[in-house]
Write a structure and sequence with these properties.
about 180 residues, alpha+beta, Trna Endonuclease, Chain: A, domain 1, about 25% strand
Length: about 180
C-alpha cells in the first residue's frame, strides 16, 4: 500500500502542513520547518519543494487543489528571483546531511548547522549566500557578506552554482594573525 502524502497549503510566503503525526515527524526527525502551536508545521518554500520532490508532501492552494511544480516555482520566483539558485544550494546541503534554515534575520539566505547539530541545541556554523556563476560580486558586496557572518559569529559560505546545477563552496573566516 502506498504511503499517503502529507497535505500542505501554500500560504503567502510559506507552506503549512496539516495537523498530523506524519507532519510533525518532518520536524521531529529531520528538522524540516518549525512547529506551530496548533500542531502544524510551517515550511519554508525551499523545504516544501524538496519534500514535494521526495514525495513526502502534496502542496495545495487555498482551495485544496494540488499545485504543480511549475506553478509552485513560478510563485516562488515572484517572491524571490534567486529562488532557483538558492534551491539548488538548499537541496545540495540537505543531501549532504546538513540542517539548513532560512537566515533572513541574519541578513543571509541560509544558516547551516554542522552535521549532528539540531537548531536550538547549538548555533549554526555558517551563513550561506548562494550565487550563480554568471553573477558578479563586488568587493563591497563580498565585504558586506563577510561582516554579516562575523557579526553573527558564524563562518561565511559562498555557494557558487554553475549552469549544470553543481555547487562549489567557498568558506571565508576572520583570523587574527
Amino acid at each position: 500500500m502506498a504511503k499517503e502524502l502529507i497535505n500542505a497549503v501554500f500560504e503567502d510566503t510559506a507552506v503549512v502542513t496539516e495537523n498530523s503525526n506524519e507532519a510533525r515527524d518532518l520536524f521531529n526527525k529531520n528538522r524540516f520547518g518549525s512547529l506551530l502551536a496548533n500542531g502544524r508545521v510551517k515550511l519554508s518554500l525551499y523545504e516544501a519543494l524538496l519534500l514535494n520532490e521526495m514525495k513526502k508532501i502534496d502542496i495545495l492552494d487555498k482551495r485544496n487543489h494540488s499545485i504543480s511544480v511549475e506553478s509552485f516555482l513560478k510563485k516562488a520566483k515572484r517572491l524571490d528571483k534567486t529562488f532557483p539558485t538558492c534551491f539548488v544550494v538548499f537541496k545540495d546541503l540537505r543531501k549532504r546531511g546538513y540542517i539548513v534554515k532560512t537566515a533572513l534575520k541574519f541578513g543571509a539566505n541560509f544558516r547551516v548547522y554542522d552535521r549532528g547539530v539540531k537548531p536550538g541545541e547549538d548555533h549554526a556554523k555558517w551563513v550561506v549566500f548562494p550565487v550563480h556563476e554568471s553573477q558578479g560580486m563586488t568587493w563591497h558586496e563580498f565585504s558586506a557578506k563577510a561582516r554579516v557572518a562575523h557579526s553573527t559569529k558564524k563562518r561565511l559560505l559562498i555557494a557558487v552554482v554553475d549552469d549544470e546545477g553543481d555547487v562549489s563552496y567557498w568558506e571565508n573566516r576572520w583570523i587574527r594573525p
